[in-house]
Amino acid sequence: MKPNYQYEKRQREMEKKKKKAEKALKKTAPTDAPPETEATPPPADK
Predict the structure, then answer these.
(1) How many Cα neighbours within 13 Å face the side chain of 17?
(2) 2-33 b/e with 16+ CB inside 10 Å = b?
(3) Within 10 Å of residue 45's Cβ, how many Cβ atoms?
(4) Helix (H) and strand (E) counts in the chain
């Protein structure tokens, strides 16, 4: 079975569109606190 490149491309495009929309929302929504990203985990207390 050969890979479905059209499907993969569509998935990538949808992901890009979603990220772009989220970024636009963050820019338009004014927030006093700095935006928290999922990439930075909260500090662990020991």
Answers:
(1) 6
(2) eeeeeeeeeeeeeeeeeeeeeeeeeeeeeeee
(3) 4
(4) 1, 0
Mean pLDDT for the chain overall: 81
In angstroms, the CA 21 to CA 27 distance is 10
DSSP reduced 3-state for 13: helix
- For 46, the token pair is 């020991």
Distance CA 35, CA 40 (A): 11
Indicate the pTM of the whole model.
0.50
Give the residue, 17 or 2, on which the prediction is more confident. Answer: 17
Structure tokens at 35: 């935006």
